[in-house]
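User: For a benchmark we're assembling, each entry needs the component sequences followed by a predicted structure for the full assembly. Here are entry 17's components. Please fill in the structure.
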Amino acid sequence: MTRRRLRLDAKTPVLVSRPVHSRAIVSACCGVAAAGGVFVGMTLSHAKALLPCDAHVEAADPSREARLLRRLAVWATRFVPVVAVSEPDGLFLDASGCERLYGGLNPLLRRIQRAMRKLGFAARLAAAPSWGGAWALARFGDSPCISVIRSGLAESLRPLPIEALRIGNETVGLLREVGITRIGELMALPRSNLAHRYGQALLRRLDQALGEAFELIEPIRIREPVYAERLFDGPTDRIEVIEIIARELLEQVCGQLAARESGCRELYVRLLRSDLAPLDLTVRTSRLSRDGKHLWKLLSPQLEKAQLGFGVEGMRVRASGVGTIRHHQTQCMGREPMAPNEETDGRASDPLADPSVAMLVDVLAARLGPGGVMRAVPLASFLPEQAFRFEAVQHLLPVRINADVVRADRPSMLLNPPVPVDVVLLRPGGPITSVAMHKRLLRVRSCIGPERIGAEWWNGEDGDRDYFKVATDDGRWLWIFFAVQRSRWFLHGEWT
Amino acid sequence: MPGILKALAERIHSVEARSTGAFRTVPTGLDAIDRALPHGGLRAGAVHEWFGVEGTADAPPRASWTPPLILLIHLARQASRHGAAVLWVGRHVWPSVHSLAENGGSLLAASLFADPADAGARLWTVDAALRCPGTVVIADGSRMNAASSRRLQLAAEAGGSLGLLARPMQESRELSVAATRWTVVRTGAGGQEQRWSICLVRSKGVDAMVTQERSWMVERMSSGGIVVVSPDLDVRLDAAPAAA
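Assistant: Structure for entry 17:
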């Protein structure tokens, strides 16, 4: 996969390393590297020294690998219906009853192997009557693609090392101390002694490998996409028809969401145009929604502006970002329910939790653009213009008020950027006596300050500021600062 | 007789009110002003216009118009106590985040900001927001004519929301259907206090005889709230509600 993604040639070795006690250890390697003598567990410097050319080294990322394995499991459902993930690097496929569709187990294995190779994975496959047996044969068997029936399972497992039983390193060490290295040697020993010396877990793993003990797997659950489609008999450019179909498809999607007790945050609408590439429209909501009217209100302006070309042949609507919206009872014996519902509770704690506010945000964002509705997020800074950030409302989650918001007296209106002004001082560095604004000289009747706000030197800024709270003779209260390094005066805000 | 009229007005209001939001009236938090208003505060499902802030000296140029943000923040804070979301429309009326974060930051958490590109989009935004039940919309109302005023009033009635429009003093002679109209003027006299003189120019449903007092002097406290002060005696009349 890495080789294909980075377009490396076939001869470049690829290594995956992970840090262990401040040393870089090879956690995986490709076939080229393995042919050069590299094996999992050796140090990275040692591996590089063994290889004749420069190797591409990737840092191990367990969470990314887990996500990839999960995606691979979803992909594998095209062969069998039940697939489970075997951490960290394996998949269990339940092929019971499916092999006949492929002409037997071996053709099925070969087919999976070919498909995996096309994806860029060198997979080892094994088919066995037990999960434990298949696990052992896939990892420690001689052949990269092997199928074993029940009568031959025990014989196939005998030559495998005891690590193939999925037992802990401690037990492996204990068994190796007494010279037991193969599963066959373990099977020859009396079971009662094994249980007494090494615990029941060893026997359970042995029985699971031999198919004599029950073992559960947890299959992945694939949620069907929320999707509705309509293909027309022929292309149409009548907007009324397209709107009716769009509303019907929206209702279908909302019905599917309601049946799943869920809502969506994004809605993708694709118009299949007869002479042009498909046109994709996207509707985003700030909260989970399955309200057909609301979604239509967001979609219809986009649909009106859509370029239909010579006509539309079909339409697809797909919901994304699906999450749970709990059903709540609207009526009880013909009356309103006694208990307050979630919406009422949410309103008291967070005003923005109200569904009508979420709908308003969506409507405004659809008309004014994604940044049409914003909220202010406080940041930890003493500089007034950097003490907050306006960000577009994506999801109406409560704002975290930073405890470090400056509690000092600040003006109600802040000018950003500050406006240069001219002032007259009583004495250098002293109180301000008049301010020139809008071509008028305003006399100052009160001047409070200075309040020094230091530059945030750790952010690479320089320039301290001395702020003055100034009352002019026409009743204004201005916030003026002197930029010490620049030797200039600025108006930064006003109490208005 | 005034008592009967007041009771009758209350009954008509309760019949006509279609407010589906969390509040029907937002008290200003200033008892002296609330007593002069027909429902004890600013009525939801209506638009209220605030003209100013204007200086006491000669009229400054239009570019220097500043909305009465401290008063609007105070009213927004009063409304947010009822669980209302606050939408500030138009960058000209966006207050500083520091002033919203005062008193625990609940107003900041309830605030949303929109800055439409032109006057048409601004009118549409305010209209759409007023139709959302239980919200407070504080908007730049400059360059809005009587038709716009009618449209916004209908939207507020439909949604039961509270609309506060900040407008320049020069537009105070424009026709409007707003429920109340206020002017805010800076007071040049005084010492260290930040004071404004506010005047109730019009209030629907109130006979001029019912309320005698229509002009008040308000002062900003260091904690961020505002109080009504006597212009003559310089004595604070009702500090308790605003300080809460």
